[in-house]
């Protein structure tokens, strides 16, 4: 008999107070032997939470003795006094090296002062390893819930004392099933704090959360990064610290888990003293996370705020230009993490007066960890010459980490290979049918749009999810408020009678503006561009390949004249053989654009091509 078939989940919620704890212990002790064993003798996971005006504050933990652990939390302030904001203003402060007991006391003040609830979770399969995995999964889900918000500078948010990196163990195969059972029980306690799993899994915050279980390659990379950071910032006795900053490059194709890895490293850097109520006051390293992508910046800001890594006193997540302009090379910070460093500018632009953002960042940090994928460079002002790339890798030396395991495209292999051959070699091979990942070709944009709407409204758990239309940047768009296209209030993707607004122009509510473009309900009837979708996953991606991508003489070719992306059309000034000259770099940029769009879908990909020859080639490839 399968073990899970006889497994039992117990979830008990009660007021977070000494009296309620005593009643819980007494009532459980008088209950049946199974309840007594699972809740008082087995390892348990627990959640403590309260609701303030701005949302929930939550703590997640696990213990081998829930009665003793809860009693310790509740009584810790009888031995130690918390310092209020008024105390701090009067000059009173925690010691420079606060004791663990004092930090522990500080954490629990808000929970004791509010009308908090504790939920104790027991399960017949729980052992230490399984409770750690369930604890991490709860952190992953709860940190992605909209209602779990930062509740003020002195309030606790979603908290936990450490990051759990688990290796293989007995009962590991039951983690998913066990968590689903627990989550269903938690929904009975508070459906707003514990919404449907699907709603959480679709959120952009969930996909970039530091609490995802890392695969072996990511764990190895994380350990290597943290060890390199420690070595660079704490040189051995007798050796002076290097005057030049250390560069660590993390390279991997789309969907290899680079963002989750970086998010996990960022969170880990603040965990040495994470029992403090405000991590920004007690961190070990002065660390920052930079990203040049508006949508991804919003996601990281929300994660950092919810986890207490960033607040009004200390901004930890920002755009590269803001960091460069606000930080002097004379006083470099400890660590800068850069997501999608291939989006950094390699020439001056707008408010950025320098000529190379990565070089400027390296002057302002002792260690720089950069996620870098040359195949996702999309604009001329991000372009790297071959000799500059060689210099970059030479600077990193042995600190170049490669990720290759595909984490996004849920393919057995054939579909992934088909996309790679199309993008890299320009060859349209027969579309594989022996793969769970489905590639579909459509003869009209309207049919593709209908498929997207169908996928978005499906009740099938495997079908439902974020499904959106995205397109190559081949239709006009401008942010000028006084300029409007003829016959419309929005710039649109127009193909014959097909017409939809595009590139993030909708009138969104205040709440929706805080969401990524793909998460907004009305965007199912819009078309996204590379600027709205790069770095994000879609359940099913509907890609409109515009007229900049053609099919001639049996191969895909790129036509920059059909593109409306000024960063592709305009030639780049480069130094060639010591002489500055204007160079057309559009072909590589357009190929990268196609690569980004075709690798957004997790479970499937739909394609419509504007070019007649390319559309015919794709339709024929589907029939073969």
From TrEMBL:
Database matches in SUPFAM superfamilies: P-loop containing nucleoside triphosphate hydrolases
Residue spans crossing the bilayer: none
Pfam families with a match to the protein in the record: GIY-YIG, SLFN-g3_helicase
Stretches assigned to the GIY-YIG domain: 44-77
Record domain Schlafen group 3-like DNA/RNA helicase: where: 246-611
Protein name: DUF2075 domain-containing protein
